[in-house]
Specification:
By secondary structure, the protein is α/β, with parallel strands linked by helices. It has a 6-stranded mixed beta sheet, with helices on both faces. A 5-stranded mixed beta sheet has the order 3-2-1-4-5. Strand 2 and strand 3 form a beta hairpin.
């Protein structure tokens, strides 16, 4: 755009449009210095056209947003834009622009810890927006800003009153956002509201209310899909009532006797951990910031996946165990972990207890994105448990397009894995190599009890809907699965790389194709957190299915026993080999 100065249509107004577009784009890319320079250049061009041009205000506001970290400069730019706006003739446009500027002023002052003045500006903005009822999102931003001011000023009663307004507006927006990804984006940005509400309830000593706020913020979009009897794509098109998270008493009443829930809230200044079962409700708080915790987890996971020294790894694992695992967990109950933020990428099974054993050696573990999803998925599993003569769809080493994927290896072990497990089931469909086509899979996977995929999965962290399972003659993108519902499937096993965790979302939790299968209606999904080796994975999966079918163990215990088998083998005893796979969803006894 900037190099097109000599083109016939280029004039001052076109330059203004170009500079504004580039400044906005740079800001979205977080190129703050670039955006600031472009905005200043655009401001200069507009002022030459007319000092009172409304676009002067637009460029000043861009400059305020781009002045990242320089709050004094941002305040000056915003105040200058306010003076120009106030000098304009009265109109609806003036009211809207002025309301937006007062909101920006208030936000800057709040960041400068000048909350008393910020509250005055928020009220000015609110008064102007009352004349513009169509701009409801801005109302939400105003009330959210006031909420954080009351938090900074420690005005607890005002905080509680404002919180009611903010949450009511938040729930109203949630019901109007159709697409799953749009919900994720909006509510990930609003997670700080729920964190503040949780922290405030903890300060009041109301631990149950605090956990209620945590549940209200967790995996709400997934909960909608899990509760719906429609495919994801159809559920997104209807503006049905938004699923209501369960209250803590409801969760306790509906939790299986065999489960103890450990739910985490990573707050800015501390970590809150709840232990919940039918007979226990306990809170443990740890004085560690979110940034410190994330650094510890990143370092540990890097060491684990990088197969670092077992001595160093065990030492770090022991430290994280002490920080994260509550004392007094019942050895006769499975642990359901509900992580938060950076904890989603942690392999809890590999943490080392005071007795020198891995957590996995003492407990069967599984994960859920929220306690509400755990309960609903568990009840779904119970309904599907009536058919004990399970049917299996087993996919092994699909003959994928090698021209498009030249760096991927043939998975002979995956083919042997898929063939082997069919012997454990009386009814099975076996799709191997060139027979494992996308179309055949899609025709078959809604009519079986157990789905096992052993092949290549390519994660797309920037666009998980475009992550894909590779099949013969085509690839199956995660977004394509939204047209289906798994009314019959009891268990999905994704024996491939990174099927459980691609990235985490502050609101929805772990994002990956395992989440997609949970949304389709599978109550339990086995999936991996990192790139796995084919041969040890084959041994793990064969043992897992045999434990389920021959030894009649639950899926969580079957996976645990299969992992212990690798742990006791000298060649695969490092956590890298056995800790990648986890079970996600609800509790099952099958």
């Amino acid at each position: 755009m900037l190099s097109a100065k000599e083109l016939y249509y280029k004039n001052a107004n076109q330059s203004v449009r170009d500079l504004g577009t580039l400044a906005d784009l740079s800001l979205k890319l977080k190129f703050f210095s670039t955006s600031l320079s472009l905005s200043k250049e655009g401001l200069s061009v507009v002022q030459q056209i007319s000092p009172r041009d409304v676009r002067v205000i637009s460029f000043l506001r861009r400059m305020a947003k781009a002045a990242k970290g320089d709050l004094a400069a941002a305040l000056n730019y915003t105040n200058e834009s306010r003076q120009i706006a106030l000098s304009r003739h009265d109109s609806a446009e003036k009211a809207q622009i002025t309301a937006e500027i007062y909101l920006s002023l208030a936000d800057v002052k709040r960041q400068m810890k000048n909350c008393n003045e910020a509250l005055i500006d928020y009220e000015q903005s609110l008064e102007l927006y009352r004349r513009l009822p169509e701009f409801t999102v801005s109302l939400y931003q105003i009330h959210k800003g006031k909420l954080f001011c009351f938090q900074q000023l420690d005005q607890r009663a005002d905080f509680s009153n404002e919180l009611d307004t903010v949450l009511k507006l938040s729930e109203g927006y949630r019901a109007t956002i159709r697409e799953d990804e749009s919900r994720q984006a909006f509510f990930a940005n609003e997670q700080e509201v729920f964190d503040a509400a949780t922290a405030n309830a903890l300060l009041d000593g109301d631990t149950q209310r605090a956990l209620n706020f945590v549940e209200k913020s967790r995996a709400r979009s997934l909960l909608d899909f899990v509760e719906s009897d429609k495919p994801m794509a159809e559920a997104e098109k209807t503006f049905a009532a938004v699923a209501r998270p369960l209250s803590i008493p409801e969760i306790q009443a509906r939790l299986p006797e065999q489960v103890q829930l450990v739910e985490y809230a990573v707050l800015p200044e501390k970590l809150a951990i709840w232990v919940v079962s039918k007979t226990r409700f306990e809170l443990i708080e740890k004085p560690i910031t979110a940034d410190e915790l994330e650094e510890k987890i990143d370092d540990y996971q890097t060491a684990l996946v990088g197969r670092r020294s077992s001595i160093d790894l065990r030492q770090a694992g022991r430290g994280l165990y002490e920080l994260l695992i509550p004392p007094g967990l019942a050895v006769d109950k499975q642990i359901c972990l509900v992580p938060d933020k950076s904890l989603h990428q942690l392999a809890f099974a590999s943490l080392v207890g005071p007795n020198g054993k891995y957590l996995l050696e003492d407990h069967a573990l599984f994960y859920a994105p929220s306690a509400s999803v755990l309960v609903i998925a568990t009840e779904n599993a119970r309904r599907k448990d009536r058919d004990t003569n399970e049917s299996l769809l087993s996919i092994g080493n699909p003959a994928f397009d090698r021209e498009e994927n030249p760096n991927l290896a043939d998975l002979g072990s995956a083919e042997a894995e898929a063939k082997s497990i069919t012997g454990d089931y009386q009814k099975s469909i076996e799709l191997l190599g060139s027979e494992a086509t996308k179309d055949t899979f899609l025709r078959s996977f809604t009519g079986v009890d157990v789905i096992h995929f052993a092949g290549h999965f390519l994660a797309n962290r920037h666009s998980p809907g475009n992550s894909k399972l590779l099949f013969a003659g085509g690839e199956l993108r995660a977004a394509e699965l939204a047209e289906y519902k798994l009314a019959k499937a009891k268990l999905v096993v994704l024996s491939a790389c990174e099927t459980g965790f691609e990235r985490y979302d502050k609101s929805e939790g772990a994002i990956g194709i395992a989440r997609t299968f949970l949304a389709l209606g599978a109550p339990v999904v086995v999936a991996s957190q990192w790139k796995v080796d084919s041969e040890p994975t084959k041994d793990l999966m064969i043992a897992f299915h045999r434990n389920r079918t021959t030894n009649r163990l639950s899926s969580a215990e079957s996976l645990r026993q299969a992992q212990l088998k690798l742990l006791r083998n000298g060649q695969t005893q490092a956590p890298y080999y056995w800790a990648a796979f986890s079970l996600y969803g609800g509790y099952t006894n099958y």
